[in-house]
């Protein structure tokens, strides 16, 4: 079993020789010395270690026996076992009567170091396997559904539960931009250690996807927001760079992960646009904007953008767009909007009338206000295009 390498062997030698007054050698399964308190012995084959490995038990070598064995000196040699398999040996140099009482201590210390290294390696392998699974889930292909379900079964993923995706995006300042990928990978390992039932994957140099799940029969309506708060607190504690965290919609089933992921991405994008200084975003706080973002292409989207495109043709378009954005942000409350813009209420009324004239919409009608709101959501920024727009229909047409 090839668990021991030179780095681990040196670690064993360094740690054990801090607590015992004798030289320590660490050998691989072939009896070759990988590390020693006497560096000149590294690379030699140790017959005493070979004997301990063959017998699978402690072998003591006195001065007489040492003269008959290649690369051996008086001392004690003990086999090292990890997960039930012998992977090497450790030796203590000195008269057996003097070093015997330290043998088991060194053996236990060495095996503990090797077991920790083996576990870390297994976790890293398991993490890569789980990460590949997550990437396939968020890129859901219906044809691969049986394979994904079988894969999930092996990993203990229950697709009958609600699947909930979080998108963590690091936002470092330019001076720390090169740390982002390393920080994402570190956070992924920390998350695996603290939340073993959660799946995670790196989806970009600054982005990590987290897939959580919960039982929909246990207060499902309240659970998503509570889980957002819990993950936000965990990331606040662990993350060393500025970040935003967005939560998608909770959905059941294999395809639910992909849907939740897409909604988390839209939530993050729209949330930053509306509240650039906010750190946490929830689909459930931005439901309508996220749903409308699915209409961003096609002839329907072109028609939905017409009202804002007409406003963008006006010389005062920036002022009118700011007025409209503020009006919607304050739930169409004119008094609060005027205060937010620091203008007189009459000035606001004039601007709203001008918006109505340009768009041909009646802002007293709920349906027209909803159409204008959708147009705002699908038309970020101020249009620079001078394309010909449909004429505003006259009254009675």
Beta strands, count = 11
The CATH top-level class label of the largest domain: Alpha Beta
Looking at the structure, what is the overall shape?
elongated
Major sheet characteristics: 6 strands, mixed
What structural class do helix, strand and pairing data support? alpha+beta
Enumerate the spans where pLDDT stays under 50 for 5 or more consecutive residues.
382-397
Mean of the pLDDT scores? 86
List the domain count as a whole number.
3
Distance from N terminus to C terminus (CA atoms, Å) equals 85 Å
The proportion of residues forming helix, as a percent range, comes to 40-55%
- N to C succession of SSEs: HEEHEHEEHHEHEEHEEHEHHHHHH
CATH homologous superfamily designation of the largest domain: Reverse transcriptase/Diguanylate cyclase domain
Radius of gyration: 33 Å
CATH-level-2 architecture of the largest domain? 2-Layer Sandwich
Q: Supply the number of helical segments.
A: 14
Strand content: 15-25%
* CATH fold descriptor of the largest domain: Alpha-Beta Plaits
InterPro entries: CdaR-like_regulators, CdaR_GGDEF, Diacid_rec, PucR_C-HTH_dom, PucR_C-HTH_sf
Protein name: Helix-turn-helix domain-containing protein
Family: Belongs to the CdaR family.
Organism: Massilia terrae
Can you characterise this structure?
The protein is α+β, with helices and mostly antiparallel strands. It folds into three domains: 6-117, Beta-Lactamase (2-Layer Sandwich), CATH 3.30.450; 139-284, Reverse transcriptase/Diguanylate cyclase domain (Alpha-Beta Plaits), CATH 3.30.70; 296-377, PucR C-terminal helix-turn-helix domain (Arc Repressor Mutant, subunit A). The chain is built from 14 helices and eleven strands. The strands form two sheets. Strands 6, 7, 8, 9, 10 and 11 form a six-stranded mixed β-sheet that branches. β1 (24-27) and β2 (33-36) form a beta hairpin.
